[in-house]
What does this fold into?
Amino acid sequence: MESGITCVDNFSSRGRKSSESHLPNLLEDIKKIVTPISQTDPTLRSTHLYSPITAAEVRRRLISEMNYNDKDLPTTRTISNKMNQLGFKLKKVQICKPKIKGSTDSVK
It folds into this structure.
C-alpha cells in the first residue's frame, strides 16, 4: 500500500476450464460425426440443421471412431450443450408422409 502499486488478481480466470481447453479437437470431431447425417427442416421454414442422433450416440462414436478415452470425455449433457452451440438441433426428424387420396375410412 505504501509503494502505490495495486495488485490485481485474475479472479475471473479461476474455476473449471471448458472441455475445449482439455480436448482441443473435441468440437471438430463432433462436427465430423454429426454433419454427414444432419438434415434440414422438411418444411423449409428454418435454416437449422436437425440431427437424428442423440448426444449419447455421439459420445459412443467419439470413443469408438475417434479413439477418445471414456474418462477424458465430458458427460452426455455437456456434449449435448456443445452440439447446440455448434448449431445442431437435437430433434427427431419428421419424415414427410404422402397424403392419402380418397376417403379416410379404414381399409377392411
In short: The radius of gyration is 23 Å. Residues 17 and 23 are 11 Å apart (CA to CA). The first helix runs from residue 19 to 22. The beta strands are 39-40, 49-50, 88-89.
